[in-house]
Amino acid sequence: MNIIISNASDKPIYEQITSQIKRMIISGELPEGSALPSMRLLAKELRISVITTKRAYTDLERDGFIETVTGKGSFVAGSNLEIIKEEQMRLCEEHLQKAVDTALQSGITYEELTEMLELLYNGE
To answer: What is the SS3 assignment for 4?
Structure first.
């Protein structure tokens, strides 16, 4: 599993892990039923605490992305990926609405706003 931890990020490490695994699941890179590395192995690979990986896995399980089977490990949950993607789209809409509201209050044009979105989306 290719997870990159950035010390320069303002996100906590467990959130960086959670968001990257969510992205892999939603994109299909990690299909339904795929086994995730054990918390201990992932912690060792990333050189972080097991407590941090446990927090990430707990959040993923709470949000319905993975299922944990005692004694067997954690696996990508099935059947609700469409619901998860719909929830992610709803969150995007909420954030975009806030951006639109701020732009309208600040006199930022549609073209300026879309240019910002394009730059952010492309990571520039």
So the answer is: coil
Distances (CA, A) of 11 to 19, 63, 86: 10, 18, 23
| pTM for the whole structure | 0.68
**CA 9 – CA 46 distance, rounded (Å):** 15
* Spatial contact of 65 and 84, defined as CB atoms under 8 Å apart: yes
Q: Distance between CA 124 and CA 70 in Å, rounded? A: 43
In whole angstroms, what is the distance from residue 63 CA to residue 88 CA?
Answer: 11
Per residue in 29-64, pLDDT (tens digit) is 998 899 999 999 999 999 999 999 999 999 999 988
Q: Chain centroid to CA 48: how far?
A: 18
